[in-house]
Batch of 2 targets.
Target 1
Amino acid sequence: MNHNMQTAFEVKNLTRLFGDVTALDNVSASVPKPSVVGLIGRNGSGKTTLLRHVIGLCLPTSGSCVTLGRPSDQLGPGELSRIGVVHQENRFLEWMKVEQQLRYVGSFYETWDRDLERRMLDELELDPSARVGALSPGKAQKLSIMLAVCHRPDLLILDEPISWLDPIARKRFLKFLLELLQQDANTIVISSHVLHDVEKIINRVICLDRGRIRADAPLDDLQERFAEWRVNVKAGRLPPRFDEDFVRSQQGDSYQARLLVEGASDRLEAFRTRHGVDVVSRPLNLERMFPLLVQEDG
Amino acid sequence: MLISIDHHSGVPVYRQLMDQIKFHIASGLLRSGEKLPATRALSAELGVNPMTVSKAYGFLEAEGVVERRRGRPLTVSFLKPEKIHVHKLDRLKQSLAPIVAIVRQLGIEKSQALDAFGAMLDDAGDMG
């Protein structure tokens, strides 16, 4: 079977320079469908640039990007009508009312879902007769989400989509995303540094740092790869520094230590025996894991 | 069947699902032959990704805890009482592991710890 049928997008050895600045440095990643990807990274790590390549708004300096089975510089109406994008900055026709803006954008899509549109207006508490130019940042973000979602795209790209939403609106928005996913088995990419929110819905993580890929893996795998070990001496003292290669960082004193470890779940017993210590292992959530992903050393 | 997911515990969601479904089976809340909710229904109810629910169901099926017959909903397998007992003990040990660490850290004697644990079980009402 053609692998493109299984892949929402794939970048290979993608490098992008802006003048002297390397925004993306030999990035390779492949996003299967269906999936919900959290694209995480600090400010300026290359998240937006990567997403702009995926939708053909940016072209690689070298390397390639294939989206929905086509090189992203050749995306036509067929592919573009299956993509939805929420940009970081909203671009609306400011003199229109919310309702007019929805009709206007909806008219470009055969698959526009009026029922979904009504429910989103209702649940996100957006007034259809409000003038677009006068919307608060939060309401504008809701509108731009609706404009990206209501045609039920196969590939939905959300670039920092929830930064302006209050907690209730975020929750409702995540619920709509889940609904889309269940009915259409599509792919959603959410770029965010609000890790707490994206953690609820994503099943895959791509982590960028300074234009390089630091992780590209299922969230479950990452959660099983990293852990915190609370170490207590039984007798004597702990070494000032544990020399096991899976120890990424160490805090504490001669009697107690807190280690962040990577890929060490099957080495716990040997560690206990070797050092004569008690160890309690706990998992790390995405927020605590993140520094380990972006740093070479803990 | 009541399941609660903690999205920020760092424990993979599919594992939390598996653990809690197995707990319900071990405790007798879910009986053999009983139907499990459909993937989509459970995912909507819990607000988790449907792929995560499928993954948990898939692993439970591979472990023989649940079974799927063609065209029918997923049901709890028939498990021998001895096997359920093993599940129960495994689960208990898993929950006691952190307690063991605390007992050691506090330097409490084994007999004292056992007495305390026994007294608490008595207070909670002995099930015989």
Target 2
Amino acid sequence: MTLEPRLVQVRKNVLKQNDVTARGLRERFREAGVLVVSLVSSPGSGKTAFLEKTLTLLQPRCRVAALVGDLATENDAARLARSRAPVKQIITGTICHLEAAMVQNALDGWDLNDLDFLFIENVGNLVCPSSYDLGEDLRFVLLSVTEGEDKPLKYPTIFNSADVAIITKSDLAVVVEFDEGAARRNIQAVRPGIEVFRLSAKTGEGMTEYLEFLESRRTRSRASASV
Amino acid sequence: MHELSIAMSIVDLAREEAESRGAPGVDVVHLKLGPLSGVVKEALLFSYEIACQQTLLEGSKLLIEEVPIVANCPTCGERRHVQSIQSLRCAECGTPTPEILEGRELMVTALELRQ
């Protein structure tokens, strides 16, 4: 005699383990008063140049550090080290995204109390990183003017998971006939109300406005942490 | 493509649940999947078969329930469906809907255990 299968209710998030680790990280970041920003984008949209510029400009007045995810190389960490901020590479091997546990391991030996800002550069990929919370306060999605204005519509999930959108390589906008209005409309369509910055890490255009935003967010989160 | 690692997490989760209930195997895993989960259904189904190999779940079926995006519409003041994933506006009145209530699900809701 074959017994009927037994139906049991479970209701468990598949990424529960990651979510739990991310929550723990977020709590640690909050206690240390460090504002944590993660960067996601497709490969080649200028994450590393943007981050290098950010670290270099923040360095004189804030304590900054970065974790950089990459499939195979340590090139990005070497580039970012030029900013003289502490940088650690996370080599993910065949994994196409960062997970909270990788961030947790990479933080070993770092005292978060010594930091004002921590940046986490994800692997260049507009699909997989969207599913994984890293405990960050803000997720930036980068879109370079050379990529085409409809990227947000093609990858709505990652744009929707972001808190801020950054249009990079603005110095090339004219050459590639970038339609900024269309790009902004598409970004707003998949993530209504999101803050958008347009800048160039190369010329520095737009960096001041964006850095002011970053510092005001840090002041705000620090104020709420001390309440 | 991260669906293989997601599939392996599903298998682990289901295996633990089955073992804790003393079931010799699993026939069906019920999964709720939202469009904003970042997971592609077809890729997940393909990966699932591979992830099940040589586990308690070998031969089991993954039943995916795709759920729609639900947002809070500030104009209607109610829960509403949205126009599409490319246009997060209230399906009724067209107001942009920043507040997403449902649609990110990636959740094992139930298991059919072998007796």
